[in-house]
Amino acid sequence: MTSINAVQRLAGQAASSNGGQPTRTRFWIVAMLFLVTSINYGDRATLSIAGPSMAHDMELGSVGMGYVFSAFSWAYVLGQIPGGWLLDRFGSRRVYFWSIFTWSGFTLLQGFIGNVGDLSTAIVMLFLLRFMVGLAEAPSFPGNSRIVTAWFPAQERGTAASIFNSAQYFATVIFSPVMAWLVHAMGWQHVFFFMGGVGLIVSFVWLKVIHSPADHPRINAAELRYIEAGGGLVHLDQGAARSASQRINFDHVRQLLRSRMMVGIYLAQYCINALSYFFITWFPVYLVKQRGMSIMEAGFLASIPAICGFAGGVLGGMISDALLRRSGSLTFARKMPIIGGMLLSMVMVLCNYTDSQILVVTFMALAFFGKGVGALGWAVMADVAPREISGLSGGLFNMFGNLSGIVTPIVIGYIVAGSGSFNGALIYVVVHAFIAAAAYLLMVGKIERIQLASGLKG
């Protein structure tokens, strides 16, 4: 690995030889990733906000809504490997543009469901549109990781990845109140019109802002050399263009699955996402059913962990990059925030031993803050993914992580139904946090970029 001092020397040499300091175009790139990822999560949340009014108008029961909710996760998981392969074949800029444009179009179309006269047809169409949103969004996070890999040196990669990953919390805080107002003032259809329309506009902004480092009109040679000296794969999309004839090579997938480091990373991401899906799906219900809060109280208080998660997410990346600059050890710099964050998130189990609503919210906020600090999986992927298949590798990683979105809500539902309490559910989530920390501590080993075996490069 290139040492941090060597990178700094090379950056200084680049600035001197080019008559100025490196530009900071890469910061505009990560700002664009943050904006697009916020819209991504806003579109995911449309149904949860519009759902109650929509269900009433369409006479859709809880079972039917459950199936509609599940459509996104099934498609999102199924689309990960094909989505990652498309990124490697055609490049991040082009594939991601069509991803944003397509998922936004399908989001907007959901606003017309109320005009379908036959209820059964409307439900089927809603399910299919949600399925297509999930499928179209599949390349998004592998694309984020791929772009960060190309645009950022190792000593800035943790912060960059944590910024786009923290957009999931930011979206909850920003878009949920707007969508709730639209439902109240104008009707549930306008939630889909608004979010879909915003996404369509932003997809064209994407084409203006995003280019590969080697092709960007606003980058200077000093910044390009600085990124490359720090391990940024500045020619990544040029490699994608040269390999445009490749098919999905499942030997590549098998090689990743034979790596103990990668298996540990996949296991940890599955467990980390169990915490995310608990907060997304069951946390407000927990506050109402077990803690006796009103819907209004639960809606307000549920935003507090989201804000703490956002703060923890950005801080985790900054801590990781600071550790890398000081120690020069990528393994130490990535593992410490993940392990520490997961251990902190285990404080949520203390909610089982108090009746104080203030303490419950405090413990949950600390837990989500810890989860944010430890959510460095995408930074790790940017560090370890083979350069030939960075998109496919990210897709496989995201597939394993989001299997938790299918399993966790269902298992918690059974636990609560069987016991009549959320105590077992909190233990279930805490065990996952412990396993995530143990996976990085005991399984992952040294964090380094995987080199494909010479016979497997396609």
Characterization of this structure:
- The chain has 458 residues and is mainly α.
- It has two domains: 21-245, MFS general substrate transporter like domains (Growth Hormone, Chain: A, Up-down Bundle), CATH 1.20.1250.20; 249-458, Growth Hormone, Chain: A, CATH 1.20.1250.20.
- The chain contains 21 helices and no strands.
- It has helices at 4-17, 25-58, 62-78, 80-90, 92-109, 119-137, 140-151, 154-165, 167-186, 189-209, 221-229, 236-242, 250-258, 260-289, 295-301, 303-327, 330-345, 357-374, 377-384, 390-419, 423-443.
- Helix 2 packs antiparallel against helix 7 (140-151) and helix 9 packs antiparallel against helix 16 (303-327).
- The two termini are 26 Å apart.
- The model is unreliable at 1-19 and 241-245 (pLDDT under 50).
